[in-house]
Write the structure tokens for this entry.
Amino acid sequence: MQKFSLKTLAGGLALGLVLGLPGLGNAAEFTFKLHHFAPPKAPTNAALAMPWAERIEKASGGRIKIDVYPSMQLGGKPPQLIQQVKDGVADIVWTLPGYSPGRFLNHEVFELPFMHTSTMATNMAMQDFMAKHGEEYKDIKVLMFHVHAGQVFHSVDPIRTVDDLAGHKVRTPTRTGGWVIEALGSTPIGVPVPKIPEMLTKKIVDTVIIPYEIALPLKVHEMVDNHMIFDDPSTPRINTSVFLFAMNKAKYDALPADLKKVIDDNSGRTLAAEMAKVWDAVEVPGEAAAAKSGTIYKMPLSEVLKVRAKVEGPVIERWKKVAAEKGVDGQAMIDEARALIAKYSK
């Protein structure tokens, strides 16, 4: 019996190595699908998704394998990504909660006008804030919230004054972004990032607000010649967008403790800090491309103050009213978010 058992075990191991059975040889015990909407060459894929997947695989000793699917390759549309990870269509997703207007409220406090100061400070503030106010995401495993460097106005016609901001058809990613555009006297058109080139080409919009980093892979600088930010060191961008990196809760819960630790050690504050540096770095080539093909204009502080007067109060009051309808003290959340950003700006 012993001889037979050893021979059988040896044969089974050999067969397992050939077939790649889980738990034998170098085969992964857990294989996950990471789904997002950005193109393969975009920083999201090249600087977040792919390196993160490789890091998890290495840290897990090959026990976890992550297959990355950019450009919505698993099907569906960007606004459906959160539901996909909740339902298990995808195991891990990267997306914007703002692509589902009205579904999630608390993160929007960081998208209000003139709230965002720097990528690092806002990212760190969000980790603290959403750990306390993340009840809207209880059905999924949040890996990280983060923001980008802030919105830049990319337009067909030059924008030099607060009055020039009126009368445009502006692509915006979020509900709060739409309120900003309305307060400026323009028409907001909310569509996900992949639709931007088509919207500009078909002249459905004449202006888009996105950071330089995503404008580069979308080649926005080849479609418009004017790019505007504020000449205000404290708030050079009018606002930012919040992103969510999340995992299916059941898939995470099914991991043994040591592999949960691998995920946790490469998520949260550690990853948010890394992403702040990455996002700031990838702004540089995008800004250079915009400067080379067109004109970058810094709106002077005198005009920025006029923008603030036109936008800040009305949009914040509008958001506070929506928050109150959900039983949330909007002003308390604003005060808390601002205090956290100030803390991490020191």
About this structure: Residues 1-25 have pLDDT under 50 and may be disordered. The domain at 152-240+283-345 is CATH 3.40.190.170 (D-Maltodextrin-Binding Protein; domain 2). The CA atoms of residues 114 and 238 lie 5 Å apart.
